[in-house]
Design brief:
By secondary structure, the protein is mainly α. The protein has helices at 2-75, 84-99, 102-116, 130-148.
Length: 149
């Protein structure tokens, strides 16, 4: 009788462990999907910001270029055209960021860094562990309780 009960309990325990593993896996998959969606939304916001900034900077660049060109012609001083060059580089960068292939080149460079220079990605003091987080939490909680007294 005890053997049958033990066998039944072992079976139930195994089913419960499989169920917990399945739930953990589902939770992990949902977490990964959620983080990826958040990353995609943040990237979309960054691209949208670049496009919006480009509109304003493009207007400024156009007005500045026309004004500087007219001033250089009117005053016969070609040196007044000099600011157009650095502003042009900034405009080109913003254009590439908003509508060009900058994001693809950055992704390729990031993948290259992750593959060949992975040591540059290490965090100071290493990856946080449960113990280090708990130690900081306890220190903070003991400090706040000390300050309350």
């Amino acid at each position: 009788m005890g053997f049958l009960l033990s066998k039944s309990m072992d079976s139930n325990l195994k089913k419960q462990q499989e169920f917990m593993l399945h739930n953990s896996r589902l939770q992990m998959e949902r977490q990964i999907l959620m983080q990826n969606q958040m990353r995609e939304r943040q990237m979309a916001m960054q691209i949208a910001w670049s496009r919006e900034f480009l509109k304003y900077f493009g207007t400024f660049f156009t007005v500045a270029s026309v004004g500087l060109t007219m001033g250089a012609i009117k005053r016969k001083r070609p040196s007044m055209l000099f600011p157009i060059f650095p502003l042009g580089f900034i405009f080109a960068y913003q254009m590439d960021s908003a509508y060009g292939t900058l994001i693809y080149r950055m992704r390729g460079e990031a993948e290259s860094i992750m593959e060949s220079e992975h040591d540059r990605l290490d965090l100071p003091l290493g990856t946080p562990t449960f113990e280090s987080i708990e130690k900081a939490r306890r220190a903070k909680s003991s400090l706040s309780s000390f300050l309350e007294k």
